[in-house]
Amino acid sequence: TDHPHVASLERLCNLATSSNFQHRTCIGSIAVMAPQDSNPRIARRSSYKEILDAHPVMADKVKEVDDLRAKLDAAELELRQLERSSPPVRPTLRERQGTVRSLHNPFNFSLQQSMNPNALVMSAATYNKDTAFTTCERQELRLTGLLPARVETLEEQVARARKQLDSFDEPINKYIFLASTAERNETVFYRLVVDHIFEYAPFIYTPTVGQACLKFGNIWRSSRGLYINQHEAKGRIADILENWPADEVAMIVVTDGSRILGLGDLGVNGMGIPIGKLALYVAGAGFHPSRTLPVMLDVGTNNEALRNSPDYLGLKQERCDDDTFYALVEEFMTAVKRKWPHCLVQFEDFSNNHCFDLLEKYRHRQLCFNDDIQGTGAVILSGFLNASKAMGLKPSEQKLLFYGAGSAAVGVADQIVAALQLEGLSAEEARARCFFVDSKGLVSSNRGDKLAKHKVAYAREEAEQPITLLDCIKYVRPTGLIGLSGQGGSFHEDHVRLMGSLNEKPIIFALSNPTKNAEVSFENAIKWTNGRVIFASGSPFDPVEHEGHTYYSGQGNNMYIFPGLGFGSFLCSATEVTDEMVIAAARTLADLVPDADTKKGILYPALSDIREISVRLAVAVIEKAYEQGVAQLERPSDVEAMVRQNVYAPEYK
Predict the structure, then answer these.
(1) In this structure, how many other beta carbons lie within 10 angstroms of the beta carbon of residue 535?
(2) Residues whose CB is less than 8 angstroms from the CB of residue 257 and which lie 6 or more positions away in sequence, other chains included
(3) What angle do CA 145, 151, 156 make, to 5 degrees?
(4) How far is 245 from 291, CA to CA, in rounded Å?
(5) Residues whose CB falls within 8 Å of the CB of residue 578, separated by 6 or more in sequence, listed in order
(6) What are 293's strand-pairing partners?
(7) pLDDT of residue 53
(8) How far apart are CA 534 and CA 506, in angstroms?
(9) CA 218 to CA 341: how far, in whole Å?
(10) From CA 265, how far away is CA 285, in angstroms rounded?
(11) What is 367-417 written as a DSSP string?
(12) What is the spatial distance between Cα 643 and Cα 622, in angstroms, rounded to a whole number?
């Protein structure tokens, strides 16, 4: 008890028992100090003096750890001073440069590596430079001999990664390579994606992410994000959040995997969606990757084939009842609000029977939104506004027929209705411009069946009850046909030709993802309207040659909206994401397309400019938040400069 380092060792042992990951490194340190003990926790069952007496090297090791702790304490002091004088959204010292305890990757830690704690930097994706560590850094971090002699630049590393990526033929193999790169070297991954986002975004998200979700258990490499299952988590979600190693989280994407793209209930296999979406929040807008968190609420799956699969990694049970589900979500949202009060939560791919209720319950209580409802609605609203310009019609003069009446379709209609109201129409008049077709035909109040709650607002008494899509088109005579059914090829030739006969420039949006679920291909839409169609799709299509002309498909990709909408909402610390903020993002996106391009049927700006697009949208969202009084931070003198200042740049520090 009189040894000068006993107090330090006692402190380390106390820290080793902490549930907070940032102290788990101490377990490794104790293992180093007591190498004969196969289990590091044995060290706590002996007296500290006995340990010191048994291991002469102990004092030196404890001193080494004490020195590291002193450096950490100094760094944290600097961090607190920095955060007092900087905007809360500025990357912290730990994010920019790293500290002793933040060098550790929680999913790639081993006691053996703790023999050289500094070498753990190579297994921490946030701080790993790999072959770009300089000679001095290798010496300082004791990495000499662990890397080849050549010191590369980030540009050289990205060029090599690009060659490796391009060597794969199958999209799923490109997805796996990109995921592995992200787990190994975050900076190379995001630099590669930011510089070539138009080329590689389809391999991170739609359409390839659909295939990745279907094969989630087969291509599993390592864990990314939090998995909160109903049995382990009940009453313990706050503790589970403490297991996440990041001190601050700005952006969460959460799903229960119940309605993944157009693929249905995939359970925990749907975790590929939050992971991919957050990669686009970083690459597309500039969220710092260390402040993003993908979350899976595992409440089982009703997909019997998955439950019987030996590769399925989630709970092998049917989905829980609604009371259990809503209680779990409530505990999760409450825990997030308490731990990270300014964090933005995005609901993703929840089934229709839950998604509307969740949005309505939480949207005014804490910062959150649903991309399937609001994000899809906003990006299609933007395309709709430009399509109206191309047709020479006012938006209020359009008549839209939606094929599919789920959350995405109703979300699109809601955004269009909100925009039409701003043009002077009443809510009833605006809704009267929207018609829906579901599995039973035209949605109407006198059809004779009980309608789902989210369809009721758009149901009206109809003189006829057409059932087939062709009969619905004949009855409604729409100017636009909007596909959000998840049924590939459901717009047949007679449907498209009829739309072409009713309109000089028919709007046909085939928005279901992935590509195989698109209601009609771009090539067929061009051919069956002789090139007159104003077309947009959810997943990309290649350009089409027709009668000597080259036509380019517009992609109504949510990626145009959610990065900028989310970034702006977070940066001003908004209390909620209002409808007006969403519409401001949609109108700004539409305005980024020159009138000369809209007349040619070009509905969206180039996706390769997504970072600049996101800056413009974030500024518009922030301005609207201040106008409505929902922004909590003091208004900066230059909003655009503030946004640009907080954009994450994938560069080595």
Answers:
(1) 27
(2) 265, 266, 267, 268, 269, 270, 271, 273, 296, 298, 301, 314, 349
(3) 135
(4) 10
(5) 624, 625, 628, 630
(6) 252
(7) 63
(8) 6
(9) 36
(10) 29
(11) SEEEIIIIIHHHHHHHHHHHHHHHHT--GGG--EEEE--SHHHHHHHHHHH
(12) 9
Cβ-Cβ contacts under 8 Å for 323 (sequence gap 6 or more):
none
Residues in the chain: 653
Give the DSSP per-residue string, 601-647.
T--S--GGGHHHHHHHHHHHHHHHHHHHT-B-SPPPS-HHHHHHHT-
Q: How far apart are CA 92 and CA 290, in angstroms?
A: 10
Question: Number of C-alpha atoms within 13 angstroms, CB side, residue 107?
Answer: 12
CB 651 within 8 A of CB 322: no
CA nearest neighbour of 35 among 112, 150, 89:
112
Q: Taking the complete model, does pTM exceed 0.85, yes or no?
A: no
Sign of torsion over alpha carbons 505, 411, 337, 228: negative
Which residue in 502, 431, 447 sits closest to 470, CA to CA? 502
Query: Which of the four pLDDT bands, split at 50, 70 and 90, describes residue 59?
Result: low
**Which of 127, 200, 205, 551 is an active site residue?**
205
List of residues 6+ apart from 626 with CB closer than 8 A:
572, 635
Q: What is the C-alpha radius of gyration for the chain, rounded to an integer number of angstroms?
A: 27
Comparing 642 with 51, the larger pLDDT belongs to: 642
Q: How does pLDDT run across 273-304, given as a tens digit for each residue?
A: 999 999 999 999 999 999 999 999 999 999 99
**Helices and strands, counts by H and E, the chain:** 28, 14
Query: Are 315 and 231 within 8 A, CB to CB?
Result: yes
Helix (H, G, I), strand (E, B) or coil at 264: strand
- How many angstroms separate the CA atoms of 438 and 455, rounded? 10
The pLDDT of residue 471 is above 80: yes
Provide the CA 217 distance to its chain's centre, in angstroms. 20
Q: Which residues pair with 434 in a beta bridge?
A: 400
Cα(260)–Cα(505) distance, rounded to whole angstroms?
A: 33
Is-contact 270 365, C-beta < 8 A? no
Number of other CB atoms surrounding residue 275 within 10 Å: 21
Q: What does the alpha-carbon distance between residue 536 and residue 515 come to, in Å, rounded to a whole number?
A: 12
Active-site hit among 277, 389, 455, 624: 277
205-237 pLDDT tens trace: 988 999 999 999 999 999 999 999 999 999 999
- Distance between CA atoms of residues 253 and 349, nearest Å: 10
Q: How confident is the model at residue 92 (pLDDT cuts 50, 70, 90)?
A: very low
Query: Among candidates 494, 372, 501, 490, which has minimal Cα distance to 439?
Result: 490
| pLDDT(111) > 60 | no
Catalytic annotation present for 277:
yes
∠ CA 70-74-79, rounded to 5°: 145
Please state whether the peptide bond connecting residue 563 to the residue before it is cis, i.e. omega within 30 degrees of 0. Answer: no
pLDDT at 27: 37
In sequence order, the β-bridge partners of residue 549 are 546
Report yes or no: 194 and 611 within 8 Å, Cβ to Cβ: yes
Instruction: With H, G, I as helix, E, B as strand and everything else as coil, classify residue 92.
Output: coil
Active site residue 337: no
